[in-house]
Amino acid sequence: MKLLHYNELNISKVKKTFKKVSQHLEAGDFAAAQVKKMPNTGGYYRAKLDKENRLLFRFATYQEESYLLLLEVIHHHAYEKSKFLNGAKIDEAKLKDVSKVSEEEAQPLVYVNKKRSTFHLLDKVICFDGDQDDIYHLPTPLVIIGSAGSGKTALTLEKMKQFTGQVAYISLSSYLVENAQRIYYANGYDNDKQEIDFLSFQEFVETIRIPKGKEITYKRFEAWYNRYKQTFKFKEPYKIFEEFKGVLTGSITDRAYLSRADYLN
Question: Which residues have a Cβ under 8 Å from the Cβ of 74 and sit 6 or more positions away?
């Protein structure tokens, strides 16, 4: 068995026993780790760290290899305080020993970075590749540039978890805001050290002052452009409209971003 550690897993109070139990789990010796299945919890298991503390984990697979996702230390049998068990009350006397796990209960993973033993958790298990992990550990302020599907949203949301106090996620897209909020709080995530708002840009502006008039639409902008298009050297009004909305593009493709001089030209 290969072990992956949740990046928020805190073992500070059980380091010695955690190391010993991890070795048993890695060797597939469930009897030595005293593994038992959590009933009616959607595939969670626990191993016994010591008399009072337990280790919560799940099984996963990637490219026909088996993994254990080490999630959380349950202190003093307080299963109801777990971040993952949704307040479930567990009677340890009724738990049954587990010698093996069926493949149906193993969670399939999209990607595993073989060089790193940690994973992140949003609406699904996320293992960052080398570039993503390097970006995750950079200090802020930070600008992340990447194509669609490159992991910008996941990186941003995971980065937000590091902040304390007042935090805001803002996007022009109301859909993206709603989706990001859903992903952020998936799996019952909670952080009592931060106050976070998910806002569209319009909602953010309105927390300061309600603007007078109405925001210009592309239809009205295009009508204005068509009246004066003979005087403009640019021929793609929608791209210009997008730039007013904050999407800075341009025709240069041989570098990651434009210098100020290049952009003005």
Answer: 46, 53, 54, 55, 56, 81, 82
Which amino acid is located at 246 in the chain? G
Distance of CA 48 to the CA centre of its chain: 29
Give the span between the Cα atoms of 163 and 195, in whole angstroms. 10
Location of structure tokens 């995971």: 158
The pLDDT, as a whole number, for residue 168 is 97
Give the Cα separation of 209 and 203 in Å (integer).
Answer: 10
Per-residue three-class SS string for 143-184? CCCCCCCCCHHHHHHHHHCCCCEEEEEEECCHHHHHHHHHHH
| Mean pLDDT, residues 21-34 taken together | 95
Among 64, 72, 55, which Cα is nearest to 109's? 64
**Residues 88-99 pLDDT 10s:** 888 888 888 887
Angle among Cα 190, 193, 198 to the nearest 5 degrees reads 65
What confidence category does residue 113 fall into, taking pLDDT thresholds of 50, 70 and 90? very high
Token couple for 90: 């567990």
Inter-axis angle of helices 174-184 and 152-160, to 10 degrees? 60
Q: Which one-letter amino acid corresponds to residue 39?
A: P
